[in-house]
TrEMBL record:
Gene3D superfamilies: alpha/beta hydrolase (3.40.50.1820)
Protein name: Alpha/beta hydrolase
GO MF: hydrolase activity
Taxonomic superkingdom: Bacteria
Keywords for the protein's UniProt record, in alphabetical order: Hydrolase
Transmembrane stretches, start-end: none
Hydrolase listed as a keyword: yes
One Pfam family cited in the UniProt record for this chain: Abhydrolase_1
Domain annotation AB hydrolase-1: ranges: 23-147
Amino acid sequence: MGEHVRGGDLDIWVEQVGEGPDVLLIGGLGDTVESWQFQLDGLADRYRLTAFDSRGVGRTAMPSGPVSVEQMADDAAEVLRALGITSAHVAGFSGGSIVSQELALRHPALVRSLVLQSTWPVMDPYMRTWVLFVRWLVEVAPSERAFLEGFYLDIYTPRAHNDGTVAEFIEEVLAFPHKQTTDEVQRYIDALVDYDTSERLGDIKAPTLVLAGGSDATSRPTLCQAVAERIPHARFEVLDGEAHQPFQEVPDRWNALVDSFWRVVEAGWP
């Protein structure tokens, strides 16, 4: 069971499981704690994992005014401090990877290591156009189901669409009671679309693993690699055949990769 913790002027929904070194999981667009279920279930025997609903997502309210990556990074820092966690392995995907980058830049002492899945330093024209497409799609789609079916075409592999995995995900989202409004989705996108960390990534000191889906059509491997090349000593791996969210499609493989990385960090990053 989760609880709200106070972070600045925000009540942030948090769930925590397991025992061991601390891990903070940061989701992407519209993704709640539940998006990390395969990690909460699969890694809790080795780590104490904390996941949370970002501002405007799930059970965390959206304050008035514009949303910024800096605010969301500070929210993540407030979650750690509220729980008495002095340092954690931080894993973020998609928009959550950008928040994770900013967390490591703004609050370096809190970040033991970084795992950045499906990330980028700044959106190139292709990705920016795709994200703006999602921004208007959420407004004009004839139903929530239609939006999800269109959005997920570029998020999950054809394999996941054809074997019923995506259909199951859609039913879970439709049944979830804490809906995100169109305005909240668009404000989150607005915070990310022109965000640029490319000139500051060299300041990140935390051991970093950058992961790309080899078939990701959005934050493509070239964008992920550009992040890895800018962070000193970062490791870069491509999961061949996978799309934007391999931590959900092939969780055992993903969990093994990050577990191996975290074990190296705990043993003393070379």
